[in-house]
From TrEMBL:
Compositionally biased tracts (Low complexity): 62-74
Domain of life: Eukaryota
Enzyme's top EC category: hydrolase
Name used for this protein in its record: RNA helicase
Amino acid sequence: MASSSSSSTQFQMLQLQVHPWKLPFSCNKPLTLTTTTLTSPSLVQRSSTPPFRSSSICTHQTSISPITSSSSRSTNEEIDHNSLRNICEGFVPDHILHRVEEVGYLMPTEIQRQALPVLFSRRDCILHAQTGSGKTLAYLLLIFSVINTQRSAVQALIVVPTRELGMQVAKVARMLAGKSGQPGSEDKSCTIMALLDGGTLKRQKSWLKSEPPTIIVATLGSLCQMLEKQMIKLESMRVLVIDEVDFMFNSSHQVSSLRKLLISYSSINNRQTIFASASIPQHRRFLYDCIQQKWTKADVVHIHANPVQPMPPRIQHRFLICSRSERHSALLSLLQSDAPQSAIVFVNVQSEKSKKAGNAPATTEKINFNSRAASFSELRQGGAYLLVATDIAGRGVDLPDTTHIYNFDLPKDAVHYLHRAGRTGRKPFSESKCVVTSIITSEERFVLQRYENELMFHCDELFL
Ligand SMILES: Nc1ncnc2c1ncn2[C@@H]1O[C@H](COP(=O)(O)OP(=O)(O)OP(=O)(O)O)[C@@H](O)[C@H]1O
């Protein structure tokens, strides 16, 4: 797996001007909220049985109607009742809510609708929902409901696995904290620091010394350095968010620092810990570990939106069989026939074995943190793009205009498939189709079939 700590990752960006491409509870037990927009009993989640008594988990199966899309709104009253403002009012400051509306977030996504009341009740939470379902806004709204901008202290910490994701989350937080058109709405004292690997720690140290930011978005490497130097203290931290939590626990570079952080935070009064991801393999086991290890309080809530549909349903999946030597021309033909608005081509990091064998890597350019960051900023500035990337772009990165994903190399497992595919279909209320195409050899067909079974989706064969 590509790691944020590697400063030199195969990654290449091509900007092409190509033609027409989201209850407060009295029970103090862990809770699993599981909702679904599909009802097929045969498609029940297949999580492994955890080594604990199932009675220790209070499972609520709630049957909630699908997300109300703007097209299905019937009356203004209904909109008001279900709106983000209605859910957040009394918790989130008004100027933030104005900003949320200005940006165009009027209705909650499913995870936001389920999670926000739980988050506002100050319970620890595991946000488990499809890629592109708006988990970021859910935890940011919690943070804005909790912070006191009159206090000069770091009050919320969001930990992310990569610099790119950190920049993106910081940008969304700043956008929400920023000025809105409403008089008196500007929040002068809410500052957001991006403390990310590859950044200039010297500048951040002097910022932390002079006036602590209210919110920090950090990667673990940089955060640990600041914690060790006691530049950041966990005592004042009201909320700790660990985004892409399964990735962080699976990363050999990050897992020990993450465990240390969670153990240190467990002794803090008034804490609230949020974990988020679209994929939490063995989530019952994870819930058990959270309580056993005191990473969360015992009444942690696991909110699992759409468990039988781990990927957005509007993503169409296809595969094309060809030999290894035909892959480049197959990709070119696909790009020509699909004429995507904007696309990401995923390649694997070249293995040591393949390097030793003298094989050429799938991408030829190696670029560092800053160039990677520049590439993403460029992409967000608009225009059609064709991004060639490794799995480093597979986690959390939000480029909503991406209509097509190409797996030039088959992802190494179903979780990687899910996150790569999830780089498209990122407009929660849109119904337009997005496409994921895997270019595979005939021998790889059974591997893709395994992913289909695991992730419960169907892949159509494509013939050129
Ligand atoms: N209530 C909303 N209404 C409209 N758009 C929204 C809403 N909430 C979030 N979005 C948009 O949905 C997109 C995906 O949101 P976000 O990046 O938070 O997804 P995510 O759940 O964190 O996905 P991933 O698991 O891939 O990281 C973003 O472009 C965001 O602007």
